[in-house]
Amino acid sequence: MRFPKSLSSTLPLSRSLSTTVVRAAPPALARTPEAETPNQAKTAAQWADFGRSHVSHGLGRLRDHVIVKGQGLELFTAEGKRLLDFTAGIGVTNLGHCHPAVSAAAASQVNTLVHLQCSIAFHATYLQLIERLLPTMPHPSLDSFFFWNSGSEAVEAAVKVARKATGKQNIICFQGGYHGRTYGSGALTRSKTIYTQSTGALMPGVFATAYPYWHSLGVPPSTSEEELVRLAKHQLDMLLRQQVAPQDTAAIIIEPVQGEGGYVPCPPAFLRHLREVCDKHNILLIVDEVQSGFYRTGTYYASEHTEGLRPDIMIFAKGVANGFPISGIVSNQAISAKLDPGSLGGTYAGNAVACAAGIATQEVFETEDIAGNVHRRSEQLFTALNSLAMGEKTKHLICEVRGQGLMVAVEFRNGADPLTLEGVPAGTQIPKNIGKRVQDYCLEKGLMVLTTSCFDTIRFIPALVVSEREMDEAMGIFKEAVEKVALEG
User: Which InterPro entries match (predicted)?
Assistant: First the structure.
């Protein structure tokens, strides 16, 4: 189902936006015309001004568009402009906007049970979602679940579980990692300073080490994976010998593919090494699959690319319910048994409607060829991006193409970062702010893409149901954008 390019006949702005905030008057007053509150329509520009005035300045935006409809990979603004969405809500709407099966399940649940606080009793959809997720786990030991609302909350829960289960305090994270913006999860986030700057002391007991990524290790992009793993292992060993003793360390937390850090897959050899370190020192391995889970990288969870990897705790969110707010942690029953009843909970944790959407999402994964489409469209995406990286017009702009499945990034060169200039002839002029300029041009042409990391990187994270035609359209716009920046210099 596709929406028309102009929504003026089917989606009047005054009704689609303003009626969502107008509340009906009490019946007695509704019969008195002079007591009625008029339904004051606003233009898209007026709504954008309203948002700029009343939405916290702490919330950034790509643009001040007012989005009123979404279907599949298409979004429509209040003016009727169509946008091809290659962001998927940052890896949330993995089945596309308003997938009919997921929306129908949520609508049905709204008329059955909207909310039951999880500390009061079980509710059916909570248990049914666990039943659906159990067979998908990357390791059979993962069998004890707790659902919360957001990825940050799930990270906080994982830290609490790890500290309680081990009786130890400290947590090791990785440079470039992103785990949230709350005080606990923000302390583990090392992708950008913006998320925690000027907000005072964060959660104590957190130590960061180098991720096996050439930027983190200060080596050229051409450095072999084997050497990156060796260097990262050495840095972790130094951390455990010089800064944080293993006997004081509760957990190591890692993303199998760094998200905000730049869509950098972790080499399987390094993940296996972490498992060995954790087993040796009674440290729990926490794997954060918030962005990389639910077929985003071609397998149900990105950690499955490392055969036999056993997380002690796994964190998930985003794609689990295709846009409905739910997150979770899963561990084993031996760890779970060490928790005090009541130590986990939350008013909206494991909401019944979100759980119903999660069940429907898993059913779609089971019945449709999502993994196959990810594989085909990933190959199409990498082919297009690698062609740009090798093209005579654009190769001097592109430092690296990387990722897994439909979690893919292009990192551009930066004249102020010598590592990114490897292989570029001396004297080559490198344009400034390549990624932002490419992103702006893409948006002008109707393609939404996001930048990521503190390096000049654009990420591609379309819905997993993206078609061959939509991928061709997106790559055509992106190619045009990169060539335009190359020409302008």
Answer: Aminotrans_3, Aminotrans_3_PPA_site, Class-III_PLP-dep_AT, PyrdxlP-dep_Trfase, PyrdxlP-dep_Trfase_major, PyrdxlP-dep_Trfase_small
Amino acid type, 239:
L
Identify the H or E element spanning 147: strand 144-148
DSSP 97: B
Contact 179, 171 (CB under 8 A): no
| Sheet strand arrangement including 313-316 | 144-148, 327-331, 313-316, 284-288, 249-254, 170-174, 206-209
Q: Cα(239)–Cα(473) distance, rounded to whole angstroms?
A: 47
> DSSP 3-state helix, strand, coil percentages of the chain (rounded to 5)?
40, 15, 45
Q: For residues 156 and 185, is the Cβ–Cβ distance under 8 A?
A: yes
Tokens 């008195």 label which residue? 32
Q: Which of 333, 358, 350, 310 is nearest to 144 (CA)?
A: 333
| Cβ atoms within 10 Å, residue 433 | 13
Give the model confidence (pLDDT) of 25-74 as tens digits: 333 333 333 333 344 578 888 888 888 889 888 887 877 888 999 999 99
Q: Which residue's entry shows tokens 């999660």? A: 358
Would you give the DSSP letter of residue 302? Answer: G
For the purposes of burial, counting CB atoms within 10 Å of the CB of 58, is it exposed (0-12), middle (13-18) or buried (19 or more)? Answer: exposed
The 8-class DSSP code of residue 72 comes to B
Task: Find out whether 394 and 483 touch, Cβ atoms under 8 Å.
Answer: yes
What global pTM score does this model have? Answer: 0.90
pLDDT in tens, 86-99: 999 999 999 999 99
